[in-house]
Each structure stands twice: as C-alpha cells, then as structure tokens.
Amino acid sequence: MMFQAQNSFGDISGKVVADFGCGCGTLGVASALLGAEYVVGIDIDSQALETASLNASDLELDINLIWCDIKNLKWRVNVKFELFLYPMYLIDVGKMVDTVVMNPPFGTRKKGSDMDFLVAALKVASQAVYSLHKTSTRDHVKRTALRDFNAKSADVLCELRFDVPQMYKFHKKKEVDIAVDLWRFVP
Predict the structure, then answer these.
(1) What are the tens digits of pLDDT across the range 111-166?
(2) Which regions of the chain does DSSP assign to beta strands (E)?
(3) Could you tell me the sign of the dihedral formed by the alpha carbons of 26, 32, 33, 35, in that order?
(4) Is 149:114 a contact under the CB 8 Å cutoff?
(5) Rounded to 5, what percent of the chain is helix, strand, coil?
(6) What DSSP state is assigned to residue 109?
(7) Cα 156–159–162 angle (5° rounding)?
(8) What domains are there in the chain, each with its CATH number?
(9) What is the pLDDT of residues 49-67, one digit of tens each?
(10) Which Pfam families has this protein been placed in (predicted)?
(11) How far, in Å, are 29, 122, 141, 143, 180 from residue 152 at the CA level?
C-alpha cells in the first residue's frame, strides 16, 4: 500500500503523513521507512498506541502518536497542521498534512464508521488519502466521496484479500476472508 503510494504517486517521501486509526503503527512505520518528513499516528486505543510506540522505537523511527477519536477531531483546514482535540487542547506541529493513510474499521459492526474516517481524512489531507474499504461497498464509497465529501477523484488502485481472524467478541466466525479495495482519493 505505502510502496504504491510512493512509487506510483510520490505521496510519501518528504511528505507529512497522518495515519488515522494507526493501531500498531504498520502504515506509519512504512511511511517513515519510505522517507516521510513527519509521521503522526492517531488512534482511540491506548494499548494499540503503546504497541505502535514500541514498533517505531525498535526501528529507531520518529513517529508522533496521539490518543483520540477521529470523530472528535476539529481540524483547521488549509492552515498549518493544528489538531483541536478538546476545546482547550491544541497541538500545533507547524506543518500541513500532505497524505492521510488508513485502514479504517470496515463499518460491519457500526455502519458508516469507515466513512467517518474518510470524511475526516479528506478534510485534512492536502494531496491524497489512501484507504482500504470492503469491495462490496465500492459504489457507495465512490459516490459518497465524490458527491458528499467533495473529493476531486476516487480511484481503486487494486483489490486485495484480507484474512481477518476472530479478534473481538462480536466476531462470529473464527476467520473471514474479505475482498478489500485500496483507494486513492484526491481531496
């Protein structure tokens, strides 16, 4: 995913990259390894952020991690990167976000959660958003991104297969094979 973002479009190296729902930091780490100027990972799960911090540290990478819910972010658009996490808490890193990368929840348990991530990403990114969505939602994702979220373009770069193991109580099967699209959106 990150290799294609860099080698096909030049959206990683020398760029400010935000990893929404960063989890253990896979996409942020890959961005840093591909030469991102600055990487910030955002997640609601503090344990996942601890793992992301360890992963970055093990590789001697400088990745900034923020604990918050993507839906609660208030972003200033078209100004230097400022996150308003709560009414009185401001993080100003003095940079514009060029690229947002994410593997959002697919919206299977909570309908629309993937689109919550997408609308936030399109408000923040100045150049591109890379996101994974279930292939079965392809028409909806494209229509919503272009019509409702004002993306300039929405393109499926490739279709992947994800083997999702039973990780949560709400997962009913031991393992599920899901068709997933890798998207590139231009805000």
Answers:
(1) 888 999 999 999 889 999 999 999 999 999 999 999 999 999 999 999 999 887 67
(2) 16-20, 38-43, 64-67, 74-75, 82-86, 89-92, 99-102, 128-134, 153-165, 175-186
(3) positive
(4) no
(5) 30, 35, 35
(6) S
(7) 130
(8) 2-186 (3.40.50.150)
(9) 999 999 999 999 999 898 8
(10) PrmA (PF06325)
(11) 28, 10, 13, 12, 22
d(CA 124, CA 66) in angstroms, rounded, equals 15
Q: Is a pLDDT exceeding 70 seen at residue 101?
A: yes
d(CA 49, CA 32): 16
**Which residue's structure tokens are 């600055």?**
38
56 three-state secondary structure: helix
CA distance 123 to 157: 21
- With 0.90 as the threshold, say if the pTM is over it: no
Residue 156 pairs in a beta bridge with 183
Find where tokens 């991690």 sit: 65
pLDDT at 107 (0 to 100): 62
Q: How far apart are CA 25 and CA 145, in angstroms?
A: 25
Positive or negative torsion for Cα 83, 68, 110, 17: positive
Q: What does the DSSP 8-state code read for residue 144?
A: I
Beta bridge partners of 181: 133, 159
